[in-house]
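Predict structure. Input: Alpha-xylosidase, 988 residues.
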Amino acid sequence: MRKRATVVPLLALLGLLTPAPATAQPTGTVVSGQARFQILSPTLVRSEYAGDQRFENAASYNVVNRTGFARTPYRTRVEDGWLIITTSALTLRYRVDSGPFRADNLELRTGGTTASPWRRVVCAAGQLCEAEDQHREGLLVAAEHPGHTGAGFVAGFSYTGNGITATVSATGKHRVVVRYANGRGGDGKHENRTLSLGVDGRQRQITLPATADWRDWRLAETEVELSAGEHRVSLTKTAADSGNVNVDSIAILAPGQPYPGTQDRAIDDCRFGTTCEAEHGALTGAAKIADEHAGHAGTGFVAELVGGTRLSHRVSSVPAAGTYPVNLRYANGVGGDGKHEPRTVLINGQPVTLPTTANWSTWATATARIPLPAGTSGLTVTCPDTGCHVNLDTIGINATQQHLALGGYRRSLDGYTGTNGDPRLYPGLLYRDGWYLLDDTNSAYANGTPRPDRGAQPYQDGYVFGYGQDYKTALGDLARLTGGPKLLPRWAYGVWYSEYIDRTAADFRERIVPAFRQHGVPLDVLVVDTDFKARNTWNGWQYDTAKFPDPQGFLDWVHGEGLHSTLNIHPSIQGTDPDFPKAQAIAKGKLARGQCADCYVFDWGDPDQLRAYVELHRAMPTDFWWLDWCCDGSGSSLRGVTPDSWINEQYAKLGGFAFSRGFGSLQAGGYSGSGPLPTGPWAEKRTTLHFTGDTSSTWGAMKGTIGYTSAEAVSTGMSAISHDIGGHNDTTGLRGSETYLDNGQVRYTTKLPDDLYARWVQLGAFQPIMRLHSNHSDRLPWQYGPAAQASATKFLNLRERLVPYLYTLAEQANRTGVPVVRPAYIDHPGSQEAYSTVDSQFLLGPDVLVAPITTPGEVGETRVWFPPGQWTDYFTGRVYQGNTWATVSAGWDTMPVFLRAGGMLVERTNNVSNDVQNPADALTVHVTAGATGEFTLYEDDGRTRITQHRNTLVLHNAKKRDWTVVVHNADGSSRVIRAGRQVVINLR
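Output follows.
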């Protein structure tokens, strides 16, 4: 049992007016022994524990700002051995002198929720340390090879710096035993491998012999001598190690002690008054941890409990012996026995009936009253011998709230078809119960330098968000803490044309750009895909002068047309490339062979290799770069920095912003490394326009991107998100309008069905970035039938007219953290419909509601929920009252887009060919008759505040330009007022 900390009576009375054990400082900092708390805002507190009392003040790679917050009033006291910090939004409690943060000694209360933000697993001798529970550096958790325990295994160790670190508690001579698999690696070799075993920073190399395949799990061990106390035990691939193994678990064992089973898994407590994840318990029997059914909390659930299954949690901090409600969140579909019926589980031996649910993705809650002793005890869920065939998601001990993620992100949507299930998203900032812990413990310093190793001393650094349903404040806190989303140049919010097809300078000069002008279609950005390169069209590093005889002249011509351009780059180099000797020399001979044929890859964490990589770009003139990914294998060995974020920052230095996938790294495994890395997604938004990858051209894929844009935005703070409008991979085989050579054979491009093309362009017109793209498929309006061409032309011109408005929203996002495209619950958190409609509609800023049509046919319809207020159809003028539903239909010439009463939509008055060459000297403001509201138009040279006082529109600090006002009346009609250069406009 833990000994209760002694409380000094005077401090209990005076509440931290004296320095110890806790001190309130004018800077908003409270120190309690080895713990430090910095109150940054009413909804954000930094929680830092340093066993050596060396607290960190320098900016980290994720957290670049802790000083830009307004002074926050708070109260603090010590009561019954607890340090209690209270702001207007949250209460944080820490048990004085209780050591590093964990479930039983740090508690958050916010918005009716009680939570234990920190989960700390300490492995005692004889316990199973699941690899997925330990700190990971540059590694993903995978589950595709059978025979692992827990949720999966740590996969790869393929790159220098990849590693896991466990906290263990043992004394004397022990064995460190590793459960691993070592099959044929990505390097094609099947041989003994090595990793480095570290104990409190002191490393030695260990050998992991080859196993039959990746399903063959074996044990390898080495002896260590441990002093009393906690220790940090790590497995790392250093530059001297071969790596390329999978690790399932480790254990610290006394001589003769057998390798533990899953029943001996090291776990943290489930604190009384909180809801805990079922998958964090100790599990025995045939049940597994899985994640394939949507709607679960945490990282997964315990899947289909059967007879003999036992799930155990350690319940702590029960205030007094008594009978308390225990809430199980579960799903009960058709079981493995073929039955769909109520099931029975036993909680500490007491039977509880779980009614059926519609399917395995439908979750319900059942409650039982269970006797619990005071303090710490066990809680076990078991199945009768006949089996119970249910999935368990969470266990609430005297608690009902669920920590369910809002939104989510992934590195890319590569391979998404819309017909093969929804892509798995990884949670970020926002949750329904209103809290989040951003664990920044292992983030490097802001310049990429790893934080110093502290040996055996524990260290934790995390930011506790307690926002309740105030999601905008949470996003604002995130933006101030980690940096706001990048504000791109204004032209980037216009129309992009991109296609993976072999183009030449002549093609762009003589056919493509003139066709845009001829057909009245705007264009701002030309994307030059990979075939422009010489020697090797994938990873060459020179323009092919047969296609682009004068690269600088081509770029000058692009600028003369009012355009900007980007070049597609793949991050490797052939050994036969003319630039390879120079690159290898700059890298001081350290470029290593990659997994592609005769190619070499870069470690961007090494300054010499990074310099060599950057130099390769110097001779290719362009405005900015598109870092594409597939199979090359470059990455970064920097500890504490997400590799994508690091290289994207370097691209931003080269061209103003990065255009790339994000949040992870190819080196982490999987096609494009879709999973998240522990260092997180937080730095990416500061530099990057996120390209979401190669989806398929289907109605389902188009529909899926509706919810994905806002999901990624609210979970990471990223605002500039770019999908392939039209999809990348053809699924129809419809013959297109162009021919190209493929290995000497003449082939035709493909195209979308006209209805799918028209609807996808409509959606793109209201996305953060409008980028037409495909893989050898038609995406230009004049390549389609008359009705589809007219629709696409209309919406592409509308997009261009909206650039001033979109640029304003992007600047707002940069300042406030609230993204351009967002789900309705950001502005209407109290409306349940705002959560249920995230996959079918979104808000563009606070005032424009967009509900794209995602079904085939000449006329489509969609069910729309209107948030509180009054909403006017932008195209038809029809008025809808808020808090209602309506089925809205539209042909290809319109789509369901609505303006909120009191909101304003500002657009160019006239169609223009591009943004750069056409100053916004004539603007139109859409308003609702009789409403009041305000909008501030942002431009690089100033802001214009526009206010509506029912029947008067006032322009504050307005530039000299021609203003037009469209007044939308309640009866569906509208009036156009040509105001010229007036600054006070009568709307009657």
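Confidence is low (pLDDT under 50) at residues 1-26.
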